[in-house]
Amino acid sequence: MLSEVLFLLCCLSCVFSKDPDIEEEEIAAYNFMAILNRKTEEMLNKYQQTEWDYETNLTDENLQRKLEVGAEMAKFQKEAWQQVISFDWRRFSDYYLRRQFFLYSVLGDGALPPEKYKKLKKIIGDMENIFSTAKICAYNETQKCDLALNPDITNIMSTSRNEEELKHVWLAWRDAVGPKCRALFEEYVQLSNEAARLNNFTDTSEYWLNGYEDPHFKDKIQNIYEQLKPLYLQLHAYVRFKLRQKYGDVVSETGPIPAHLLGDIMAQNWREIADFTLPFPNVGDNDLTQELIDQNYTAIQIARTAEDFFKSLNLTEMPDSFWEKSIFTKSEDKPMVCMASSWDFSDGKDFRVKLCMHITLTDFTVTHHEMGHIEYYLHYKNLPVKFRGGANDGFHEAVGDLISLSVLSTKHLRQIGLINTDIDHRVDMNNLYKVGLHKIMFLPFSYLMELWRWDIFSGKTKPEDYNCKWWELREKYQGVESPVDRSEEDFDPASKYHIISSTPYLRYFIALILQFQFHRTLCEKAGQYDPISHYSHLHNCDIYQSREAGNALKRMLAMGASRPWPDALEALTGQREMDATAILEYFQPLHEWLKNENKKNGAYVGWESSKRVCTRTKKELET
Ligand code: X8Z
Ligand code: ZN
């Protein structure tokens, strides 16, 4: 609907342009844009097919094909860009036409000379291959050396409570990926910066931030981070206290927490250690993964459950081809990229997810996350191609997570039979604590991922300091430390997919804040939240079946990237700024509980410096 309106506006205002000097050019530009958009869709579709082929079957042949088509696409984009900037588009009267020109006017990596472009893409492809095919040996079983990140390593990190085993797996994964990626990564930084400079940015970090259309964006992010820090510190203190009870002196009373004990290979989501750290142990049915298994959920059923939620909000059902072409579980015979992703093939028809799903609560949540991306694609599929994106990339990441906030409320879990106990405030608190382990603990991680890269791209952090800088930030922001000393012969950031695949990460921080803002608005529309009395608390709200809430969300999704993101935020929430008050309000009961509990336990809040060292060479560690 919005797309038709946009086209019409575009058309009419071109024809009735007010400025006679520009009128003729604007009409020509309108026709030019229509043709360019069609060709762009075709080119993107062709390229995305080759990307899909490579990521679902990591062969040299598929990489070659992807690089070839990528080069063809870059050539096409460069030629189009040259034509785009030859128009005096800033003077056009039609807002949407101007905005399309504006979005086309930044060329991106295609600005590199063809050989360098290919090299950049090859380096990233090679790192993805190293990451996705890396295998490690099992603890104390030197013969069993076929453990992959998904599912083996992920499983061990979340379920093993053997400190030595966790340490072994944590280290082996980093040894398997880091050193092999280091030189490639250094070259990637050079080439990526070169591309950014050809686009008139100072470096890649400035290029990445450009999408937010706000020169003060970094400061605003820092400000939000500061507002949430007190809550993070309380949760961190509580967890460390519990970990000491479990693992003893491996965890110090006042230092950073060893990163291998937090249930996740990156220590970015601590939900998996909920079982032995719960505020109220043995109250309620807490193992939701076990519930899913006991109830014989399959991967497809999980996806259907997610779809059902979206449909209940009057959002769009998944097209048949989605079910036919998506990959839900890991292929047995082909090496593939297992990192979950969603795909828009730019033809208005073909939308897919690629998942290596296992029957766990994490993958249940990831499936909702990915389907949120598909909903966005479906709602803006008829807009001009440059408007087919989130209002900013954080909006795109927030949609599925927003749905999970309702899905994982005790109210909804009871409704779908994953919680079977009676209503009890302790069950609620346990549940809120688990959401906190997921969401609040992710906050500094998502921030430092980009703090690290910003300084690398700007040259502030030199290659000889890459790894030690990483650990400096991990300690400063997350209060975690490596379980062993590190050196610059290691390259631990490469153990994270988004680093080696060149995927910006600030989007997840933004999404974390936005999803609670969206949630608060939609809960109000669903009649489950009264902003004056705060009577029904945000964490108990479930927007399931609320068409009111769904229709409001639909309107925002259908705007795509057609306007700067504050307009989209305002359309939904009435606010034009990102704002931490919703997430703080959501967790307020947990925050209060933690402050009391930490006081009662005498738990130290904050952390002193780590005793771990990070040196240039491994040899220095021995001396
Ligand atoms: O990469 C993802 C999604 C795909 S866009 C599964 N996420 C980040 C991660 O796993 O590191 C979602 C949360 C953060
Ligand atoms: Zn995502």
Structure description:
The structure is a single chain. This protein is an all-alpha fold and 623 residues long. It has a domain at 2-102. The protein contains 23 helices and 6 strands. The strands form 3 sheets. It has a two-stranded parallel ribbon. Strands 2-3 form a two-stranded antiparallel sheet. β2 (341-344) and β3 (351-354) form a beta hairpin. It is globular, with a radius of gyration of 25 Å. The N and C termini lie far apart (69 Å). Mean pLDDT is 95; it is low at 1-16. The structure holds L-captopril and zinc ion. Zinc ion binds next to α13.
What is the gyration radius calculated from CA atoms?
Answer: 25 Å
List the bound ligands. L-captopril, zinc ion
Overall SS class? mainly alpha
The helicity comes to 55-70%
Q: What distinguishing features does this structure have?
A:
single chain; 623 residues; mainly alpha; two-stranded antiparallel sheet; globular; binds L-captopril; binds zinc ion; Peptidase_M2
